[in-house]
Write a structure and sequence with these properties.
By secondary structure, this protein is an alpha+beta fold. It is built from 25 helices and 13 strands. An eight-stranded mixed beta sheet has the order 1-11-10-2-3-6-5-4. The protein has a three-stranded mixed beta sheet with strand order 7-8-9, with no helix packed on it. It has a two-stranded parallel ribbon with strand order 12-13. The chain is elongated, with a radius of gyration of 28 Å. The structure holds adenosine-5'-triphosphate and magnesium ion (MG). The site of adenosine-5'-triphosphate has 13 residues, from helix 10.
Length: 505
């Protein structure tokens, strides 16, 4: 019934139609059936404040798409004819951000629960031929770009996009038709210029305008196409053939996109709840290489038990509204490199202090894969901490265990250990022990340590357990190997070392 209504409604010709800007269709609530309860109060508040000040303002983009599909949007964007300066003046906590694309963040609440409503000013539809032509890129041509509001590079990539325009111009510049609708929460009307409602109903992801030109303007749209295809695949959405055809050719354009933006886009692909579907989409589209080095790696390793489980866990956590850390996922992604490098180093230098070997292995993994995000100091430090903590889980003495559990990043390190246990890399018993230990009170912790010590005395041959305890030197590369063990090994070098339970890291 609704489909019929929509069909009849969108087919009716509208006045003032223009091929470039589409035709304005105003769809009432009785047709689109958006549930107002799914709309965030703060977004309504922002629209209200702007409208009360005499501006046009709508909820826009992905939020309208999700509302139409009956999903609660994860964030809300607002579009207005007010300039960023005018917007900023209307709110107590509002910040103008971005250079390539200036927008305003209106902030509600504080700390963990704070919420940001992004407010964008309608952009003008400008011909690339009229834009300032920049010979280099954002880094090499900083000076040239300083006072320019609309600029493109030699390939047509838009480097500055800060010329204000009308709502229809703004709609034509958005990426996909289903992302280009405007919702007024007070009248309940959805304004649609590019058949977004029809496409939502037909379940197609369609680029507005000529797809290759749009990928040239902003190659990140290739990644966005993958992201939305993955996000909406469970609803049956497909990328329209014309939108899909130039994606492969457009890949090479990604090389010029600033690394920091690529890194953020990669995280959006992997950490917004659809990581597994994203990998599937990339395979389906034949875009498994050349997107971004770390993403290529994710696709090639997606079947490795550790990474696969990490991706599944990430999707599950996001769906449960729990936080996810990029450092954790990247630590999972590069763990195989760290292990390999560590094993190689240990083999080549049997006398090398295990912790030193692990440090060097980590450095090598960073050099090989994370060089391009070296500016992200905290992220790298967190990954290193997760990895360096692993051997310490094998030391279950009273002192070592108490110190480890007190570490700031214990939870991330422990989650990583548990993942390794799930994948058979270390015994489950070890991660279960740590889980119990971390939850226990002081008295119970002492008894847990006593039990271990007793077990070890009673059955010293019980490797699966005893191999992780530290009171006696053990044959594991725990990174903090006691001197006694090193001396013994020097006299009698071992081959095929390890108990099968060691992380070898
Ligand atoms: P999500 O649900 O993941 O937030 P979204 O569609 O809201 O998806 P955003 O990155 O939040 O994506 O962008 C908001 C809107 O801004 C989009 O819906 C789209 O209309 C527009 N937009 C964002 N990035 C681009 C781009 N690179 N090119 C054209 N339009 C864009
Ligand atoms: Mg959004």
């Amino acid at each position: 019934m609704i489909n019929k209504l929509i069909n009849r409604w969108w087919k009716s010709p509208a006045k003032g139609a223009s091929a470039r800007f589409g035709r304005r269709e105003e769809v009432p609530a009785s047709v689109h059936k958006i549930d107002p309860n799914l709309v965030d109060d703060r977004a309504i508040d922002v629209v209200d404040t702007l409208q009360a000040a005499g501006f046009d303002a709508y909820i826009v983009g992905g939020a309208v798409r999700d509302l139409l599909l009956g999903k609660r949007p994860k964030d809300f964007d607002v579009a207005t004819d007010a300039t960023p300066e005018q917007v900023k003046r209307l709110f107590r906590r509002a910040f103008i951000i971005g250079r390539r694309f200036r927008i305003v963040h209106v902030v509600f609440g504080r700390g963990r629960d704070h919420e940001v409503i992004e407010v964008t000013t309608f952009r003008a539809f400008l011909d690339s031929a009229d834009a300032a032509q920049i010979t280099g890129n954002e880094k090499t041509s900083k000076r040239q770009l300083e006072h320019v509001e609309h600029a493109v590079d030699a390939s047509g990539r838009v480097l500055r996009d800060n010329v204000w325009g009308t709502i229809e111009e703004d709609a034509a510049r958005r990426d996909f038709s289903i992302n280009a609708m405007y919702y007024d929460p007070f009248t309940g009307v959805v304004i649609d210029y590019h058949h977004g409602i029809r496409d939502a109903q037909k379940k197609v992801l369609r680029m507005i305008g000529d797809p290759l030109t749009r990928y040239r303007e902003d190659p990140v749209r290739v990644i966005r196409a993958i992201r939305f295809a993955a996000k909406l695949t469970s609803l049956g959405f497909k990328i329209e053939a014309k939108t899909r055809a130039p994606m492969g050719d457009a890949l090479k354009l990604l090389a010029d996109v600033p690394q920091s933006r690529m890194f953020d886009e990669m995280l959006k692909l992997l950490q917004t709840g659809h990581a597994i579907d994203t990998v599937e989409q990339m395979k389906k589209l034949g875009l498994t290489k050349g997107l971004y080095p770390l993403l290529d790696l994710v696709v090639s390793r997606a079947q490795d038990p550790l990474l696969r489980t990490a991706l599944q866990d990430t999707d599950r956590r996001v769906s449960e509204g729990k936080p996810v850390a990029p450092s954790y996922l990247l630590a999972c992604l590069l763990w195989a490199d760290v292990r390999q490098a560590n094993e190689k180093l240990r083999r080549a230098n049997p006398r090398m202090q295990p912790m030193m070997a692990l440090q060097q292995a980590v450095d090598q993994a960073f050099d090989a894969h994370i060089g391009d995000v070296s500016g992200r100091g905290r992220l790298g430090a967190d990954m290193r901490e997760i990895w360096m903590m692993q051997p310490r889980f094998e030391r279950r003495t009273a002192r070592a265990a108490a110190a480890l559990v007190m570490q700031n990043r214990f939870r991330a390190g422990f989650d990583f250990l548990r993942l390794r246990a799930q994948c058979g890399e270390v015994p489950l018993e070890l991660s279960e022990w740590w889980e119990a230990y971390s939850l226990a009170d002081e008295h119970s912790r002492e008894s847990m340590i006593d039990v271990l010590a007793r077990e070890r005395r009673q059955s010293p041959s019980r490797k699966a357990t005893a191999a992780f305890d530290e009171e006696e030197p053990v044959e594991v590369s725990d990174g903090v190997e006691p001197a006694r063990k090193r001396r013994r090994r020097r006299r009698k070098p071992r081959t095929g070392e390890g108990s099968g339970t060691s992380p070898e890291a």
